[in-house]
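Predict the 3D structure for this chain.
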Amino acid sequence: MHIHILGICGTFMGSLAVLAKELGHRVTGSDANVYPPMSTQLQAQGIELMQGYDPAHLEPAPDLVVVGNALSRGNPAVEYVLNKGLPYVSGPQWLADHVLQGRWVLAAAGTHGKTTTSSMLAWVLEHAGMSPGFLIGGVPQNFGVSARLGGTPFFVVEADEYDSAFFDKRSKFVHYHPRTAILNNLEFDHADIFPDLAAIERQFHHLVRTIPGEGLVIHPTSETALKRVIDMGCWTPVQTTGEGGQWQARLLSEDGSHFEVLFDGKPQGTVDWELTGQHNVANALACLAAARHVGLVPELGCAALSAFKSVKRRMEKVAEVKGITIYDDFAHHPTAIATTLDGLRKRVGDAKVIAVVEPRSNSMKLGAHRDGLPESVVQADNVFWYAPPNLGWDLAATVASSTVPTQVCDSLEAIIEGVKAIATPGTQVVVMSNGGFGGLHGKLAQALEG
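Done. Predicted structure below.
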C-alpha cells in the first residue's frame, strides 16, 4: 500500500515512516522543512521526501495519508485531502492500529527526558537479548535509527502529551494503551495547545485510565503534579523512584556518571556511564523499574546502562576544535536547560562553559517560560541568546536580570563572533535548540578552526 506522510520530518512522523517501510509499504512524505537528523535517516531508508505541501505531491492519490499534528486547516495539502475525500488518519492512531496491537507496550511520558528514557529502556531490553521494537523521538546512538518493529512482543514508545492531529486533540499517548508506563515528571509546557498545567494533568490521567490492572505505573516521589494525576484515580500498581521511593540511587560521583542502584533498600548493581546530571540518574531508575516489570533483573539493566551511548542531540559532542568542545543539546525549557548545564558543570569543574540558547519551541515563542530563563543558565559562565526578528516578545528585557554575562544576538554571525572572541582551549560550548538552528554547530566549528 502507498502511504504518504504529511509532516514527515518531525521526529515522531519520521519514526512512523521507518516502521511503515519495514512493514512493506511504499512510503513517501512531505514537510515544510527537511533537515537532519530525520531527513538523512529517511533518505538512507529509501523514503522519498518532498519539500513543502504542494497538493501535486498527492497525485496519483496514495492509499492512505497520515497527517502530522503540525498541520492545520488551511494547509494546501490538508485541504486537498479533505476535498478529494482521501482516506486519512493521525500518526498515533496509525501506530496503535498497525504496530502496537497485541504487543506489550512500555511507554515513557513526561515533560522532560522522554526521548532519553525510552532510548535507555530500548537499549536495556536489547542488551538482554529481548529484541524490542521501538519508536523514539530522536536517534539513540546505540541503534542509529529512531524506530524498528523488533522481533518480540515488547515495544518501547516515547509517549508524548502533544495533540494527535488537527482533527484529534487528545494527547498522542492516549492511543498507545501501555502495560508499563513511566511518568517522568510534569510541568507546564506546550502553551500553544494547553491553557494551564491542570489541562495537561487531565490528559495524563486519561493515559493512567488506559493502563491495565496487571500493568505498572512508575513515577518519582518528588513530582507534585504527578501525585495529583495519580490521586484522580489509579487502578494499577505503582512503583516510585527518587528520594523516599522504592528505587533510589546512591551517587558515587557528584556529576551522576557513577552511581549505585537500590530497590527496596537493597543494592541491585552500579551504573558507570558517559552521561551526567541528576535528571539522567532519575531517568535510569525509571528505566530499570520498567525493565524489571518485563522480567529483567536490575543487575543486568545496570550493566546495559553502563554501555548506553545517549541520543543524538542530547548533549551530543559534535566537534572539538583547538581544545574547544561543542555540544548539540535539545533543551528548550528552563528546567531542561538548568539540569543539562548543572550536569556539565559538575563534570568539567571550573572549565569555562558557554551556553548558546535559541528559544524556539511553541511555548517559548509564546513567552510561556520566559520568567524561568535568567535563572536557568546560572551554571554557565557566558550566555548567548538568539532573538530572531519574529520572536514576539522582548528577550533582551527578560534576560537583563541574569547574573551571568549575557549577549542577545539577532543573527548567527553575531553569536559566532561573540563565542569566538571569548572561547579558549578547555571551553565547553553548549548549543541549545529544538530545531536545526541554521546549522550553527558546523558554522561555529569552522569559524573556530579558522
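The mean pLDDT is 92.
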